[in-house]
Amino acid sequence: MQFSPNNAVGSGEGEILQDIGAALSLAVSLVLSGDADLVEIVLLSLRVSLTATALSCLIGVPLGAILAVTRFPGRGAAVVMVNALMGLPPVVVGLLVYIHLSRAGPLGFLGLLYTPTAMIIAQTILITPIVAALSRQILEDLHGEYRDQFRSLCLTRWQVARALIWDGRYSLITAGLAGFGRAVAEVGAVMIVGGNIDHLTRVMTTAIALETSKGDLALALALGAVLMVLALGVNAAVHAMRLTAQRQAYA
Q: DSSP string of 4-38?
């Protein structure tokens, strides 16, 4: 067979497609067989992101409630600030946490840098404004509906906030799920403060970046598939919670 550039290009494309097909096949087998490294990375990702989401809800929901039910000088600026912080660049958050947790930083004595705890701190800072801003909007809308009833009952602001949080619990769960979706897909901050250390701080997003750069597409594709399933699951849960909240509103 006579050699030609077209034949060379076709052969190269065929090899690439064959490699991708083999990587996809191996990725499926890794997921179905429950590969130990894959499971370890996924579980660490879930532990870090779920812990960060829980902490952000403990901080963000009360903060959103305060902004929703109280009026004080500078409230408008506070609302604008919280909304602006929703777009915090992850690498900036990672850099700030790194500076504080490094040996030369004010919290360096704690020895938290390059640990899952440092990753949880970074993700909590990153998603708390998201939870707070969404909670404020949800609770402020509810407060507008029930303001007259609350006034007639002479409730304190704390009692009003508790009542609003309970009544809007399904909608508030969607805020938490939105925060979790942001956390589990985040890569910049956790890469900086976690270091992507094997068997210690390697999560799905950082592992995907590393394995892709190494050319190990099988593990990267397997982790990507799991991450996509989680993203779809979060979106489905948000949709279900919205439907539940609507049914509760019209019940």
A: -HHHHHHHHHHHHHHHHHHHHHHHHHHHHHT-HHH
For residues 63 and 79, is the Cβ–Cβ distance under 8 A?
no
Tokens for 198, please give them: 């094997």
| Of 150, 173, 146, 156, nearest in space to 61 by CA | 173
User: Contact 221/24 with Cβ under 8 angstroms?
Assistant: yes
Q: How far apart are CA 30 and CA 39, in angstroms?
A: 10
Class at the top of the CATH hierarchy for domain 36-250 = mainly alpha
DSSP letters spanning 73-106: TTHHHHHHHHHHHTT--HHHHHHHHHHHHSTTST
- The predicted model gives 41-62 an average pLDDT of 94
Neighbours of 106 (CB within 10 A): 10
pTM: 0.84
